[in-house]
Amino acid sequence: xxxxxxxxxxxxxxxxxxxxxxxxxxxxxxxxxxxxxxxxxxxxxxxxxxxxxxxxxxxxxxxxxxxxxxxxxxxxxxxxxxxxxxxxxxxxxxxxxxxxxxxxxxxxxxxxxxxxxxxxxxxxxxxxxxxxxxxxxxxxxxxxxxxxxxxxxxxxxxxxxxxxxxxxxxxxxxxxxxxxxxxxxxxxxxxxxxxxxxxxxxxxxxxxxxxxxxxxxxxxxxxxxxxxxxxxxxxxxxxxxxxxxxxxxxxxxxxxxxxxxxxxxxxxxxxxxxxxxxxxxxxxxxxxxxxx
Length: 292
What we know:
By secondary structure, the chain is of the alpha/beta class. It contains eight helices and 14 strands.
């Protein structure tokens, strides 16, 4: 089973991704389906009729390889193909490792990236984001221990595993200041890991009492290993996922934002997210929505 941790997920190698897998969606034949014209898109994309989309397909259920067909599937795949239809272009999914994605859009190897990347103020210095997914972090533990965590203070003094390469690592530290160490209680014992899978392993082997991961990822694993994990407590405040566009490319970001808003208006956007069990993630698309 592929490893995940959340959009803020750990940077890790992805096997056999040197050659991009291509998924094509036909341009719509009628004007009612497409909300873009050639003038909306950058000249190179309009002329080629193809939108190259960077993805790291190791992040179920957002994007991952189907075990039988080895094709890229997931919520983001459905969304970006719908986006392509609105833009009136074909979609070519270029498989890459997660740590290549930002550089790939900056250097023009892909036109956009849609792969569970969080819109952060720091990242906005080098790329732009069209926010489209209200992600959230969740505490979880083994189902047999779920009853031990019913209020925020129950995490105090406990060992908590979380990937140190994710936004959740910083969020847990803030949580500790608010509810535990900063409130005169025992501090959370942070157990930093290199990935979400490593955090789950610490939990399974009894070296951690509780862990934190993205709600979308956790829901996937709860289905894959029914009865093993259970979410506890309320969600952590989190930054949204964004479609990544080259910094300052207002033509591209404007076209993407316009098309995403059209998907919201016609109901396609909500249908895809709720169909994937992600009602909580529905949000209004905006450009660079994360602020200080």
